[in-house]
């Protein structure tokens, strides 16, 4: 079951999308995308008002409560709180972050054994309500895990890993923190590329070849910086910890053999609901670049990637749709006859494919090598390493075929060079 089955705000979200589409010119502000932070939530809130203390107390102690098998008991005793005191989008995002982390801990506290069939109403009801308010599904999404889950140690210091921390944690210690923060650095490295993307669209609208050339060069540099940021995963995340501890807490209840029926959200629906787990496939950056460059993936991959868009904040989803409906950059370059533009476009496509190759190497290391190292290593507080997830991604995809296909179809975007 998808987002659309439980949200009563779909009409609002669609209306918002149409409104966004009809206002010009093409700029980041229209989509609540920051000039400085891109898709990251700028300066996320770290605390809610005193009324929400029961959520905060649990969310702030998740690793300990999960490792001591106490979380479910604590959640069952939690009072049912109303969402009416949540003011503005920053409080709503923090509430979604807290409730999504508590939910993942609740479901996966015992690993793949004794998985609960029901999410209790004192967690399910507010989680679904805040999800409806934000236009997000009631499960942990990339926007919780990374975009809203960061703070600076020194508020005046730089946005660099040594000055960063996460707001809410799960088991996995320093590796979990590194996994979140390196992903954040990839999002940060994408910011100049996202700005360049809007410049490229405006340049096409104004038929300005010089501006387009500059924008494409800027975008390529940004993708190269994303590759450098992504490689830092090796420095901060231990593959065995990733495999044995972290991965399961990102798992969802759709296409997951460990929880084939899905999860009943008590008080929301008597039928179990199915949602995919958290994944950076829900990062708007890659979708936006693909749309700008006119990259076409296979039918199957496109179906998965488009489903992941439903796990993004609605304004970010609207941004991708707006790029899709803008005049085609590829067609413009082909008809311009400019060899310089072709070259700059191809450089962007190649850099994006290289970013995907780098990602494939990382997935191979963290999923395959992690599996070997984690075997009987006693690293997980959970009873037994999750078996059903062994060769699968957190979103339940036949992972390597999918990732390679997406990389290869990116390369197919290359335009034949001038003779
Ligand atoms: C240890 C690190 C990582 C692992 C093990 C990993 C694993 C995966 C897996 C298994 C998938 C398949 C889809 C799914 O099952 O959800 C996937 C997809 C994807 N991941 Fe990662 N990932 C990692 C880090 C990152 C980072 C840091 C980014 C960038 C922000 C990223 C971006 C993507 C994207 C965009 C996709 C969709 C496929 C594509 O467009 O190429 N991943 N990842």
TrEMBL record:
InterPro entries recorded for this chain?
Indolamine_dOase, Trp/Indoleamine_2_3_dOase-like
What terms describe the molecular function in GO for this protein?
heme binding; indoleamine 2,3-dioxygenase activity; L-tryptophan 2,3-dioxygenase activity; metal ion binding
- Which reaction does this chain catalyze? L-tryptophan + O2 = N-formyl-L-kynurenine
What Enzyme Commission number(s) does the record list for this chain? 1.13.11.-
Keyword Heme in record: yes
Record GO cellular component, one term: cytoplasm
Q: Could you tell me the Gene Ontology terms of the biological process aspect for this record? A: 'de novo' NAD+ biosynthetic process from L-tryptophan; immune system process; L-tryptophan catabolic process to kynurenine
Signal peptide segment: none
Question: Which SUPFAM superfamilies does the record associate with it?
Answer: Indolic compounds 2,3-dioxygenase-like
User: Any idea which positions bind heme b?
Assistant: 359
Q: What Pfam families does the entry give?
A: IDO
Q: Does the keyword Plastid apply?
A: no
Keywords on record: Dioxygenase, Heme, Immunity, Iron, Metal-binding, Oxidoreductase, Tryptophan catabolism
Q: What does this protein do?
A: Catalyzes the first and rate limiting step of the catabolism of tryptophan along the kynurenine pathway. Involved in immune regulation.
**Which family is it part of?**
Belongs to the indoleamine 2,3-dioxygenase family.
- Name of the featured protein: Indoleamine 2,3-dioxygenase 2
Species whose genome carries this gene: Sarcophilus harrisii
């Amino acid at each position: 079951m998808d987002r659309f089955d439980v949200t009563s705000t779909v009409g609002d979200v669609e209306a918002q999308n149409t409104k966004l589409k009809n206002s010009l010119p093409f700029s980041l502000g229209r989509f609540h995308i920051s000039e400085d932070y891109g898709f990251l939530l700028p300066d996320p809130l770290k605390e809610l008002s005193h009324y929400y203390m029961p959520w905060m107390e649990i969310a702030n102690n998740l690793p300990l409560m999960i490792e001591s098998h106490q979380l479910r008991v604590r959640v069952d005793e939690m009072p049912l709180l109303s969402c009416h005191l949540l003011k503005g989008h920053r409080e709503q995002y923090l509430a979604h972050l807290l409730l999504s982390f508590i939910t993942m801990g609740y479901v996966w506290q015992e690993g793949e054994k004794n998985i609960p069939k029901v999410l209790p109403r004192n967690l399910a009801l507010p989680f679904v309500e805040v999800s409806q308010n934000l236009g997000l599904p009631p499960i942990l999404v990339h926007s919780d895990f990374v975009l809203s889950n960061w703070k600076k140690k020194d508020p005046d210091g730089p946005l660099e890993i040594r000055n960063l921390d996460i707001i809410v944690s799960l088991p996995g210690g320093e590796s979990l923190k590194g996994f979140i923060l390196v992903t954040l650095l990839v999002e940060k490295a994408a910011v100049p590329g996202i700005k360049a993307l809007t410049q490229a669209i405006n340049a096409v609208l104004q038929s300005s070849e010089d501006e387009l050339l500059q924008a494409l060069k800027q975008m390529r540099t940004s993708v190269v910086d994303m590759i450098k940021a992504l490689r830092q995963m090796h420095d901060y995340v231990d593959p065995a910890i990733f495999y044995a501890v972290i991965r399961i807490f990102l798992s969802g209840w759709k296409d997951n053999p460990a929880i084939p029926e899905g999860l009943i959200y008590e008080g929301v629906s008597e039928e179990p609901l199915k949602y995919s787990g958290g994944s950076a496939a829900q990062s708007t950056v890659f979708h936006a670049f693909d749309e700008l460059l006119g990259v076409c993936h296979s039918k199957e991959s496109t179906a998965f990637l488009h489903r992941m868009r439903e796990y993004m904040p609605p304004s970010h989803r609207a941004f991708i749709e707006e790029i899709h409906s803008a005049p085609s950059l590829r067609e413009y370059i082909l008809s311009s006859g400019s060899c310089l533009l072709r070259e700059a476009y191809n450089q962007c496509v190649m850099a994006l494919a290289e970013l995907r190759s780098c990602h494939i190497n990382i997935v191979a290391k963290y999923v395959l090598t992690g599996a070997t190292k984690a075997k009987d290593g006693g690293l997980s507080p959970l009873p037994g390493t999750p078996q059903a997830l062994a060769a699968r991604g957190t979103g339940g995809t036949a992972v390597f075929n999918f990732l390679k296909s997406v990389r290869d179809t990116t390369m197919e975007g290359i335009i034949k060079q001038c003779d």
